[in-house]
């Protein structure tokens, strides 16, 4: 219901119901806009055999990378290995199943999952290992491969502001995969920097409507920079 209070006050309540073997979709890109405290709660819960869907798997010791330390992730669906030595090590050793997916295809898999579209055709990946074994159809003389949508048991999302009804606003680049992830979870949990009163958010500025959101929690964030680059004066 649009007017239902969705605010929870503990991370245990925010992630209640997460179990071994579930699929978790996480917003963020690199370390920008990642739900860092929700990820830490997943670590604390010590659930295992997870399938995690995200652009990348954080870095060593931060973000989704912390879930690799205790082998909590069984399958990682991502577009990028990133600056993560443990991820690379577990992938090459065969400990971790990694399904590398083109970035735009991954974004559309989430969006389609949230929109109730079971699959779609894309030209990306045709004629490469990505397309092996997938259905091919031709449109306007060009071959396309069939990609299936992704839905998660949980979606964990980082946002800038939200009201208690779950209407959400993202800030700048931190918007990235978060709006797509938010639509694709059976249970969507959003952690925010600021909670506002209903009516304070201009409806035209809302990026994720509350109908998609099940739980909202106010958090404090480190916002670590993955790779600081500066130029000389």
TrEMBL record:
The keyword Transferase applies. It comes from the Bacteria. Gene3D superfamilies: Glutaconate Coenzyme A-transferase. Keywords: Transferase. InterPro entries: 3-oxoacid_CoA-transf_A (IPR012792), CoA_trans_fam_I (IPR004165), CoA_transf_BS (IPR004163), NagB/RpiA_transferase-like (IPR037171). SUPFAM superfamilies: NagB/RpiA/CoA transferase-like. One of its GO terms (molecular function) is CoA-transferase activity. Belongs to the 3-oxoacid CoA-transferase subunit A family. This is CoA transferase subunit A.
